[in-house]
Amino acid sequence: MLTLNNVSAGYGYDDIIKNISFEATDNISIIGPNGCGKTTLLRAIANIIPSRGSILIQGKTISDMKQREISKKIAMLTQLPSVYFSYNVISTVMMGRYLHLKNRFMNTPTKEDWSVVEESLKAVNMLEEKDKDILQLSGGQLQRVFLARVLAQEPKIILLDEPTNNLDLKCQVEIMDYLKKWTRKNERIVISVLHDINLALDLSERLLVMKNGEIHTDAGVEDILANGLLNNVYDMDVKEYMKKTYKRWNGTRK
Known about the structure:
It is a single chain. This protein has about 250 residues and is α/β, with parallel strands linked by helices. It has a domain at about 1-80 and about 155-250: Rossmann fold (3-Layer(aba) Sandwich), CATH 3.40.50. The chain has helices at about 40-45, 65-75, 90-95, 100, 110-125, 140-150, 170-185, 195-205, 220-225, 230-235, 240-250; strands spanning about 1-10, 15-25, 30, 50-55, 60, 75, 155-160, 190-195, 205-210, 215-220. The chain has a six-stranded mixed sheet, with helices on both faces. A four-stranded antiparallel sheet has the order 2-1-4-5, with helices on one face. Helix 5 packs across helix 6 (about 140-150). It is globular. The termini are far apart.
């Protein structure tokens, strides 16, 4: 569904990511230390920043596609943005239907559009807040509304940049569970940047581990965990740290 061949991108004259190549047909979680290029990679895939190399969606190069066509295939949720407008929740989520409304008479939403928007709000547990002004929402609620807007777009590929920022533990788990169900429908995939390794393991069976703007490891979860491949990336014994935390939950420090 998504193929990258030797993709490099950055800002100005400096490449942040270098010669990235991979193919995605199922969910992928991207992990790695701060500054390794995870967000830049998502922005390049979404065509937000220019890139070299080739990026293909369902076999078609994005450089040969208009932005409207790309937006029908890909939706991206960035880290929680600043809000400069005042709309209620349901109107904000309806913005995700823009490409579906365009060219209709007066861009009028249909019953199907409203149904999609309400289902998207249910998915993030915000339907009861649908009439509330988004300026009245907490950071966690706002993040869920913007995720619902992405879901309402009904893309084939969702790019998520730290989607669980500001969310409580219960909401994090519920959203991860929903995204896994969402990807089982109509050959959809989620490519997500996550700092929480446990959430990354929960969402995907495959991890793309980045370091210094390059792919350090691209493998299945079991291979990465069994071979201690995260230690070199994070400069620490990740497995040992996780084991210590697990022991605390079991009521023992040894």
